[in-house]
Request: fold
Amino acid sequence: MQITVRYFASLREAMGTGSEALQTQAATVGALREELRARHATAQQALAPEKPVRMALNQDMCSADAPLKAGDEVAFFPPVTGG
Reply:
């Protein structure tokens, strides 16, 4: 299925792009994260499981078990701190 993946802040810098359209067989957002780690050498570290990466599905915060369907937009971004 075709989806759009968007990267924000330091993840955008690490991935070298703000977004990409891609074909995936991933059933969940978490599976997509692992698929991206396998596809991109830079993503192996940036999207590593121990990294506190936030995820959104169609502009709503989600957990790794959120199901994917064709046409979805998934966003990955680091946690934000303020002060």
